[in-house]
Amino acid sequence: LTFEIFTNRARRAVLLAEQEAAALGSTLVRPEHLLLGLLAEGEGVAWIELRRLGAEIDVVRQLVDRRGEEDQALEELTGLDANAIRARFTTGDSAGRPVLDRRSRRALWAARAEAALLHHRYVGTEHLLLGLTSDDEDSVCVLLEQLGIDRAELRANVTESVAPQQVRLERALTAFFGIRATLNEGQEGQPVVEEALAVLNRDVLGLLNDAYVDEELKAGELADRVEQAVALSHSRVT
Amino acid sequence: MVQKGARDPSALTEDELRALRRIETDLHDPTSLASSTTSTSPEVGLRAVVALRRLLEDVEATQVANARRHGWSWTDIADVLEITRQSAHAKFRETQGADR
User: Fold this and answer.
1) Which of B92, B64, B94, B93 is nearest to B80 (CA)?
2) Do B34 and A93 lie within an 8 Å CB cutoff?
3) What does pTM read for this prediction?
4) Residue A122 with chain B: CB contacts under 8 Å
5) Label partner for A232 (CA 20 to 30 A): which of A105, A141, A215, B88?
6) C-beta atoms surrounding A211 within 10 Å
7) ipTM above 0.85, yes or no
8) In angstroms, what CA-CA distances link B44 with A83, B54, B96?
Protein backbone atom coordinates (compact mmCIF):
# COMPACT_ATOMS: atom_id res chain seq x y z
CA LEU A 1 0.00 0.00 0.00
CA THR A 2 1.25 3.45 -0.86
CA PHE A 3 -0.09 6.85 0.13
CA GLU A 4 0.76 8.11 -3.35
CA ILE A 5 -2.74 7.25 -4.53
CA PHE A 6 -4.29 8.93 -1.47
CA THR A 7 -5.62 12.47 -1.87
CA ASN A 8 -4.07 15.16 0.30
CA ARG A 9 -7.16 15.21 2.46
CA ALA A 10 -7.09 11.47 2.99
CA ARG A 11 -3.39 11.60 3.80
CA ARG A 12 -3.92 14.41 6.24
CA ALA A 13 -6.77 12.46 7.86
CA VAL A 14 -4.30 9.62 8.57
CA LEU A 15 -1.87 12.08 10.14
CA LEU A 16 -4.66 13.67 12.16
CA ALA A 17 -5.70 10.21 13.33
CA GLU A 18 -2.20 9.71 14.67
CA GLN A 19 -2.49 13.00 16.55
CA GLU A 20 -5.92 12.07 17.92
CA ALA A 21 -4.56 8.75 19.19
CA ALA A 22 -1.58 10.49 20.80
CA ALA A 23 -3.80 13.13 22.39
CA LEU A 24 -6.01 10.42 23.89
CA GLY A 25 -2.92 8.68 25.26
CA SER A 26 -3.21 5.60 23.04
CA THR A 27 -0.21 3.52 21.96
CA LEU A 28 -2.11 2.36 18.88
CA VAL A 29 -3.93 4.24 16.16
CA ARG A 30 -7.25 2.42 16.15
CA PRO A 31 -9.99 2.67 13.50
CA GLU A 32 -11.89 4.99 15.85
CA HIS A 33 -8.96 7.39 15.67
CA LEU A 34 -9.08 7.26 11.88
CA LEU A 35 -12.73 8.28 12.11
CA LEU A 36 -11.69 11.15 14.38
CA GLY A 37 -9.04 12.06 11.81
CA LEU A 38 -11.72 12.32 9.14
CA LEU A 39 -13.79 14.56 11.42
CA ALA A 40 -10.78 16.68 12.43
CA GLU A 41 -10.05 17.28 8.74
CA GLY A 42 -12.92 19.76 8.69
CA GLU A 43 -13.55 19.32 4.97
CA GLY A 44 -13.91 16.62 2.36
CA VAL A 45 -16.70 14.21 1.46
CA ALA A 46 -16.33 12.05 4.59
CA TRP A 47 -16.51 15.06 6.89
CA ILE A 48 -19.52 16.49 5.04
CA GLU A 49 -21.46 13.22 5.12
CA LEU A 50 -20.60 12.47 8.75
CA ARG A 51 -21.69 15.95 9.76
CA ARG A 52 -24.86 15.67 7.73
CA LEU A 53 -25.90 12.69 9.86
CA GLY A 54 -25.00 14.53 13.04
CA ALA A 55 -21.51 13.34 14.00
CA GLU A 56 -19.79 15.99 16.14
CA ILE A 57 -16.09 15.55 16.76
CA ASP A 58 -16.31 16.41 20.47
CA VAL A 59 -19.05 13.86 21.04
CA VAL A 60 -17.12 11.20 19.12
CA ARG A 61 -13.97 11.98 21.09
CA GLN A 62 -15.85 11.47 24.34
CA LEU A 63 -17.21 8.15 23.11
CA VAL A 64 -13.74 7.01 22.01
CA ASP A 65 -12.04 8.11 25.20
CA ARG A 66 -13.80 6.30 28.02
CA ARG A 67 -10.53 5.45 29.68
CA GLY A 68 -11.20 7.32 32.88
CA GLU A 69 -14.31 5.38 33.79
CA GLU A 70 -12.91 2.13 32.38
CA ASP A 71 -9.74 2.35 34.44
CA GLN A 72 -11.79 3.13 37.51
CA ALA A 73 -13.98 0.08 36.92
CA LEU A 74 -10.90 -2.08 36.49
CA GLU A 75 -9.45 -0.87 39.74
CA GLU A 76 -12.74 -1.39 41.53
CA LEU A 77 -13.02 -4.97 40.26
CA THR A 78 -9.40 -6.10 40.54
CA GLY A 79 -7.35 -3.46 42.27
CA LEU A 80 -5.18 -3.16 39.14
CA ASP A 81 -3.80 0.25 38.23
CA ALA A 82 -4.18 0.49 34.45
CA ASN A 83 -2.15 3.67 34.23
CA ALA A 84 0.80 2.08 35.98
CA ILE A 85 0.64 -0.92 33.65
CA ARG A 86 0.45 1.32 30.59
CA ALA A 87 3.34 3.45 31.73
CA ARG A 88 5.56 0.46 32.36
CA PHE A 89 4.64 -1.98 29.64
CA THR A 90 3.36 -0.08 26.62
CA THR A 91 5.19 2.23 24.25
CA GLY A 92 4.54 3.80 20.89
CA ASP A 93 7.26 3.70 18.26
CA SER A 94 10.84 4.67 19.13
CA ALA A 95 9.78 8.32 19.28
CA GLY A 96 6.76 7.48 21.44
CA ARG A 97 4.30 8.00 18.61
CA PRO A 98 1.27 5.73 18.31
CA VAL A 99 1.38 3.06 15.60
CA LEU A 100 -1.45 1.93 13.32
CA ASP A 101 -3.02 -1.23 14.72
CA ARG A 102 -4.00 -4.26 12.65
CA ARG A 103 -7.58 -3.13 12.10
CA SER A 104 -6.50 0.34 10.99
CA ARG A 105 -4.12 -1.18 8.48
CA ARG A 106 -6.92 -3.37 7.22
CA ALA A 107 -9.14 -0.30 6.94
CA LEU A 108 -6.57 1.39 4.68
CA TRP A 109 -6.55 -1.66 2.40
CA ALA A 110 -10.34 -1.75 2.51
CA ALA A 111 -10.37 1.94 1.49
CA ARG A 112 -8.33 1.10 -1.57
CA ALA A 113 -10.69 -1.76 -2.39
CA GLU A 114 -13.70 0.57 -2.03
CA ALA A 115 -12.04 3.01 -4.44
CA ALA A 116 -11.46 0.19 -6.93
CA LEU A 117 -15.12 -0.85 -6.70
CA LEU A 118 -16.11 2.67 -7.75
CA HIS A 119 -13.48 2.62 -10.52
CA HIS A 120 -11.66 5.50 -8.85
CA ARG A 121 -7.93 5.78 -9.33
CA TYR A 122 -7.37 7.66 -6.09
CA VAL A 123 -8.25 7.05 -2.44
CA GLY A 124 -10.11 9.98 -0.92
CA THR A 125 -11.69 10.58 2.47
CA GLU A 126 -14.89 9.07 1.07
CA HIS A 127 -13.15 5.75 0.42
CA LEU A 128 -11.47 5.88 3.80
CA LEU A 129 -14.87 6.25 5.44
CA LEU A 130 -16.26 3.39 3.33
CA GLY A 131 -13.23 1.28 4.27
CA LEU A 132 -13.79 1.99 7.96
CA THR A 133 -17.40 0.83 7.70
CA SER A 134 -17.10 -2.02 5.21
CA ASP A 135 -17.92 -4.65 7.84
CA ASP A 136 -20.71 -4.12 10.33
CA GLU A 137 -18.54 -5.71 13.04
CA ASP A 138 -16.02 -2.87 12.62
CA SER A 139 -15.49 -0.89 15.80
CA VAL A 140 -16.34 2.26 13.87
CA CYS A 141 -19.78 0.79 13.15
CA VAL A 142 -20.33 0.22 16.84
CA LEU A 143 -19.38 3.85 17.36
CA LEU A 144 -21.80 4.97 14.65
CA GLU A 145 -24.52 2.94 16.34
CA GLN A 146 -23.84 4.80 19.59
CA LEU A 147 -24.14 8.05 17.65
CA GLY A 148 -27.47 6.95 16.20
CA ILE A 149 -26.05 6.95 12.67
CA ASP A 150 -27.27 4.26 10.31
CA ARG A 151 -24.29 2.59 8.68
CA ALA A 152 -26.11 1.69 5.46
CA GLU A 153 -27.50 5.20 5.09
CA LEU A 154 -24.09 6.77 5.63
CA ARG A 155 -22.47 4.50 3.06
CA ALA A 156 -25.24 5.10 0.53
CA ASN A 157 -24.92 8.88 0.99
CA VAL A 158 -21.16 8.76 0.53
CA THR A 159 -21.39 6.63 -2.60
CA GLU A 160 -24.17 8.73 -4.05
CA SER A 161 -22.19 11.90 -3.44
CA VAL A 162 -19.01 10.74 -5.22
CA ALA A 163 -20.47 8.43 -7.85
CA PRO A 164 -24.06 9.53 -8.53
CA GLN A 165 -24.11 8.07 -12.03
CA GLN A 166 -22.91 4.69 -10.84
CA VAL A 167 -25.62 4.67 -8.19
CA ARG A 168 -28.14 5.69 -10.85
CA LEU A 169 -26.93 2.91 -13.12
CA GLU A 170 -27.34 0.39 -10.34
CA ARG A 171 -30.91 1.54 -9.77
CA ALA A 172 -31.66 1.53 -13.49
CA LEU A 173 -30.29 -1.99 -13.82
CA THR A 174 -32.37 -3.12 -10.87
CA ALA A 175 -35.42 -1.64 -12.57
CA PHE A 176 -34.44 -3.33 -15.81
CA PHE A 177 -34.02 -6.73 -14.26
CA GLY A 178 -37.29 -6.20 -12.44
CA ILE A 179 -39.24 -5.44 -15.59
CA ARG A 180 -37.48 -8.18 -17.51
CA ALA A 181 -38.55 -10.71 -14.89
CA THR A 182 -42.12 -9.39 -15.04
CA LEU A 183 -42.16 -9.44 -18.81
CA ASN A 184 -40.76 -12.92 -19.00
CA GLU A 185 -43.62 -14.19 -16.92
CA GLY A 186 -45.98 -15.45 -19.57
CA GLN A 187 -44.81 -13.05 -22.26
CA GLU A 188 -41.66 -14.76 -23.34
CA GLY A 189 -41.07 -14.56 -27.08
CA GLN A 190 -43.21 -11.45 -27.54
CA PRO A 191 -41.62 -9.40 -30.30
CA VAL A 192 -41.80 -6.06 -28.43
CA VAL A 193 -40.04 -7.48 -25.42
CA GLU A 194 -37.41 -9.18 -27.53
CA GLU A 195 -36.84 -5.96 -29.43
CA ALA A 196 -36.44 -3.86 -26.30
CA LEU A 197 -33.96 -6.37 -24.93
CA ALA A 198 -32.03 -6.47 -28.19
CA VAL A 199 -31.72 -2.67 -28.28
CA LEU A 200 -30.58 -2.63 -24.69
CA ASN A 201 -28.06 -5.39 -25.25
CA ARG A 202 -26.59 -3.62 -28.25
CA ASP A 203 -26.36 -0.25 -26.52
CA VAL A 204 -25.08 -1.46 -23.20
CA LEU A 205 -22.50 -3.81 -24.64
CA GLY A 206 -21.40 -1.16 -27.12
CA LEU A 207 -20.86 1.34 -24.34
CA LEU A 208 -18.99 -1.15 -22.22
CA ASN A 209 -16.59 -1.76 -25.07
CA ASP A 210 -15.95 1.92 -25.66
CA ALA A 211 -12.78 3.21 -24.12
CA TYR A 212 -14.27 5.87 -21.90
CA VAL A 213 -11.78 7.33 -19.45
CA ASP A 214 -14.36 8.64 -17.05
CA GLU A 215 -16.24 5.83 -15.34
CA GLU A 216 -18.89 8.24 -14.13
CA LEU A 217 -19.61 9.38 -17.68
CA LYS A 218 -19.82 5.77 -18.82
CA ALA A 219 -22.13 4.88 -15.94
CA GLY A 220 -24.25 7.94 -16.70
CA GLU A 221 -24.67 7.02 -20.36
CA LEU A 222 -25.39 3.42 -19.50
CA ALA A 223 -27.99 4.55 -16.99
CA ASP A 224 -29.61 6.68 -19.73
CA ARG A 225 -29.82 3.70 -22.08
CA VAL A 226 -31.11 1.33 -19.47
CA GLU A 227 -33.75 3.81 -18.32
CA GLN A 228 -34.79 4.35 -21.95
CA ALA A 229 -35.00 0.63 -22.55
CA VAL A 230 -37.06 0.13 -19.40
CA ALA A 231 -39.42 2.95 -20.40
CA LEU A 232 -39.66 1.49 -23.89
CA SER A 233 -40.54 -1.95 -22.57
CA HIS A 234 -43.14 -0.40 -20.28
CA SER A 235 -44.81 1.69 -22.97
CA ARG A 236 -44.90 -1.05 -25.56
CA VAL A 237 -46.15 -3.81 -23.37
CA THR A 238 -48.66 -2.04 -21.18
CA MET B 1 -3.07 9.33 -12.40
CA VAL B 2 -4.37 10.98 -9.23
CA GLN B 3 -7.10 13.15 -10.64
CA LYS B 4 -8.87 14.29 -7.49
CA GLY B 5 -5.60 14.56 -5.62
CA ALA B 6 -4.25 16.93 -8.19
CA ARG B 7 -7.30 19.14 -7.74
CA ASP B 8 -7.03 18.99 -3.97
CA PRO B 9 -6.09 22.57 -3.10
CA SER B 10 -4.23 22.11 0.13
CA ALA B 11 -0.76 20.71 -0.45
CA LEU B 12 1.03 18.82 2.30
CA THR B 13 4.08 20.26 4.02
CA GLU B 14 7.48 18.58 4.00
CA ASP B 15 6.96 17.51 7.62
CA GLU B 16 3.63 15.93 6.78
CA LEU B 17 5.11 14.06 3.84
CA ARG B 18 7.92 12.78 6.04
CA ALA B 19 5.40 11.57 8.61
CA LEU B 20 3.45 9.78 5.87
CA ARG B 21 6.59 8.04 4.61
CA ARG B 22 7.26 6.85 8.15
CA ILE B 23 3.74 5.42 8.46
CA GLU B 24 3.99 3.88 5.00
CA THR B 25 7.27 2.15 5.84
CA ASP B 26 5.74 0.88 9.04
CA LEU B 27 2.77 -0.55 7.14
CA HIS B 28 5.08 -2.90 5.32
CA ASP B 29 7.29 -3.76 8.24
CA PRO B 30 5.30 -3.27 11.41
CA THR B 31 8.09 -3.54 13.95
CA SER B 32 8.30 0.08 14.92
CA LEU B 33 6.74 -0.29 18.36
CA ALA B 34 9.65 0.44 20.63
CA SER B 35 10.66 -2.34 22.97
CA SER B 36 9.30 -2.31 26.47
CA THR B 37 11.25 -0.32 28.99
CA THR B 38 11.59 -3.37 31.17
CA SER B 39 14.36 -5.89 30.67
CA THR B 40 12.08 -8.94 30.46
CA SER B 41 12.76 -11.45 27.71
CA PRO B 42 10.38 -11.74 24.73
CA GLU B 43 9.49 -15.24 25.94
CA VAL B 44 8.27 -13.95 29.28
CA GLY B 45 6.59 -10.94 27.69
CA LEU B 46 4.60 -12.98 25.19
CA ARG B 47 3.59 -15.62 27.74
CA ALA B 48 2.38 -12.86 30.00
CA VAL B 49 0.24 -11.57 27.13
CA VAL B 50 -1.34 -15.02 26.73
CA ALA B 51 -2.02 -15.06 30.46
CA LEU B 52 -3.70 -11.67 30.18
CA ARG B 53 -5.79 -12.82 27.22
CA ARG B 54 -7.00 -15.91 29.05
CA LEU B 55 -7.71 -13.87 32.15
CA LEU B 56 -9.67 -11.43 30.00
CA GLU B 57 -11.76 -14.24 28.50
CA ASP B 58 -12.49 -15.73 31.90
CA VAL B 59 -13.36 -12.42 33.51
CA GLU B 60 -15.47 -11.48 30.49
CA ALA B 61 -17.51 -14.69 30.60
CA THR B 62 -18.04 -14.32 34.34
CA GLN B 63 -19.06 -10.68 34.12
CA VAL B 64 -21.44 -11.30 31.23
CA ALA B 65 -23.09 -14.12 33.17
CA ASN B 66 -23.36 -11.81 36.13
CA ALA B 67 -25.02 -9.12 34.02
CA ARG B 68 -27.51 -11.70 32.70
CA ARG B 69 -28.34 -12.74 36.27
CA HIS B 70 -29.03 -9.09 37.00
CA GLY B 71 -31.53 -9.12 34.17
CA TRP B 72 -29.48 -7.25 31.58
CA SER B 73 -30.54 -7.80 27.98
CA TRP B 74 -28.04 -8.74 25.28
CA THR B 75 -28.44 -5.26 23.88
CA ASP B 76 -27.51 -3.65 27.21
CA ILE B 77 -24.47 -5.90 27.50
CA ALA B 78 -23.38 -5.34 23.90
CA ASP B 79 -23.63 -1.56 24.38
CA VAL B 80 -21.27 -1.52 27.32
CA LEU B 81 -18.88 -4.04 25.76
CA GLU B 82 -18.86 -1.86 22.61
CA ILE B 83 -19.67 -4.72 20.32
CA THR B 84 -22.71 -5.27 18.13
CA ARG B 85 -25.71 -7.04 19.59
CA GLN B 86 -25.27 -9.87 17.10
CA SER B 87 -21.69 -10.57 18.07
CA ALA B 88 -22.55 -10.45 21.78
CA HIS B 89 -25.21 -13.03 21.06
CA ALA B 90 -22.92 -15.20 18.97
CA LYS B 91 -20.09 -14.96 21.46
CA PHE B 92 -21.88 -15.67 24.72
CA ARG B 93 -25.18 -17.33 23.96
CA GLU B 94 -24.02 -20.93 23.98
CA THR B 95 -22.38 -20.54 27.36
CA GLN B 96 -25.17 -18.49 28.88
CA GLY B 97 -28.31 -20.41 28.06
CA ALA B 98 -31.60 -18.70 27.27
CA ASP B 99 -31.74 -15.73 24.88
CA ARG B 100 -33.70 -12.61 25.07
Assistant:
1) B64
2) yes
3) 0.79
4) 2-5
5) A215
6) 5
7) no
8) 21, 15, 34
